[in-house]
Amino acid sequence: MLSAISRVAVAGPTQIEADGYAGSSVGQWTCGPTARARYGGVGGHVRVYTDDQPTAALAPAPLPEEAPNGGALEADGEGARPAAPPPLPRGAEREPAEPPRVIEPMGLSLEAGGAGEHRSFTRIACNEVPCSPKNDAIPPGRLLGAGHAGLGYDWKYFGLRFGALAFQRWTNGFDASPSVSVLPDIEFRFARRAGFHAGVGFGAYDASTTFRPGGYHFLGYTGGDWDVDLRVGGHLVFDDEVGLRFAGAVRYAVTRGVAPGIGVAVSSTQQVSPEGRLFVVFTP
């Protein structure tokens, strides 16, 4: 009876990601000073598929060979040799006792996430000579917020996600408080997620880019316990300036439901600046 049970995700597959990051960037506000922004933040993201989607069933246990007593249990004698599974035919392989860890759920999905980031500035150069007390001012260090929500639909060889994101940023260095910007959040995936896949998008793909959205291309690979992701595009890497951003991430599934990962990114406007990221993905 136990060998016939299969695991089924009653509410559909769920993915939860917790993210922490830190980095810096250099840029200039329009008619304002040039400054270096140092930032660090944490965020989270949840995606839930609404359809019931069974995962791979556990491999059934091999049936014992029929015994002359009709299969009745017999007491082991003292010193009896341990029973070994029957030999397999030449060239045959045993089925894995655990379902594959690469799951490709399909259908409608709901997703939402948010992040909080502390950002501080150091002025590098003034826009006016001598420096203007107002126009060359820089914002104080402050905690900023961002969030996004959307829908998605996945087919075997194609996926679509669309929604919106909102984030705080400093429009000018002399502003008394940050402004809120709202942008669309869209992504297209081509090819199966198991193996090599690629796509394009506009918006955000992790907690940091929720504050630094833009247009990007991506290439990924998922196989066994590993997942690798590379992205490049033009992003709002500084509050009021767009630049190139290169990002890469890799994660490894230590168990069926926990996959920690590490990521690095490099942004370029007036200077090349780094960013580091640690994250963990839960798939209960």
The SSE order reads EEEEEEEEEHEEEEE
Distance between the termini: 24 Å
**Unreliable stretches:** 1-12, 55-61, 64-77
Number of strands: 14
Helix content: under 10%
Secondary-structure blueprint:
Layout: E1 8-9, E2 14-28, E3 34-49, E4 53-54, E5 107-125, E6 142-154, E7 158-169, E8 179-190, E9 195-203, H1 207-211, E10 214-223, E11 226-238, E12 241-252, E13 258-268, E14 272-282
Antiparallel strand pairs: 1-4, 2-3, 2-14, 3-5, 5-6, 6-7, 7-8, 8-9, 9-10, 10-11, 11-12, 12-13, 13-14
Description:
The protein has 284 residues and is mainly β. It has a twelve-stranded antiparallel beta barrel. The chain is elongated, with a radius of gyration of 26 Å. The protein starts with 7 loop residues before the first strand and ends with a strand.
Question: Which features does this protein show?
Answer:
single chain; elongated; mainly beta; 284 residues; disordered N terminus; 1 helix
Summed up:
The protein is mainly β and 284 residues long.
